[in-house]
Amino acid sequence: PVIVQPAPQPRQMIFRKVSRRFRVLATTVPNEIRHDLSLSEIAQLPGAAGSGLRTQGLSTIKHSLATHTRFKTVAGGEMVKAWFDDVILEVEIASVIIHIPKEYPEGSCEYEAVLAHERGHGRLARENAAELAGELEAEISLAGGWPTSNNPMESPDYSAVEDILRSSINRIINPIYERYEREERRGQAALDHPDPYDAVYRKCTGWK
What is the value of pTM for the model shown? Predict the structure, then answer.
């Protein structure tokens, strides 16, 4: 049988800052709207509030931070000199999937109310990703002291050079990313406080 792979989602740039040696990017994909699961099926997905009567819709969002580094090295005597040639930090919103229960026909009041609410989760995720990229760029720029061809890092162990250089970046970006993940979870939860659909329920009368 021929297996047809779905076309990759087009990516949109939401942050880009380029300096002589560092590039910081943030990209996202459009919302994917799924209308194939029932209330009870959506209630079983990770992140659902509980029973199908309480979970009227759900957004699942995947994000990541990738570091792409290129180094240059020169061996001289007993020491290896190394420096950064190119560093790319990429914050990515890899998927935003909005689940709307199939009990609500497309175009119905309930369908549109769920869609509007869930789009808010995707919008917040993209805003937070762009802010993260801006913070990473600022911290990388302020750190300074990066190895260059004029001021290289020196080590007698060639095999350890790459790890040392990567660690110097990770010491800066990892705490920032960990804080971002905590704040992203809190922000997304706040959109559903105090009840996941308390405000949405009042907009329509045909809830299941």
Answer: 0.86
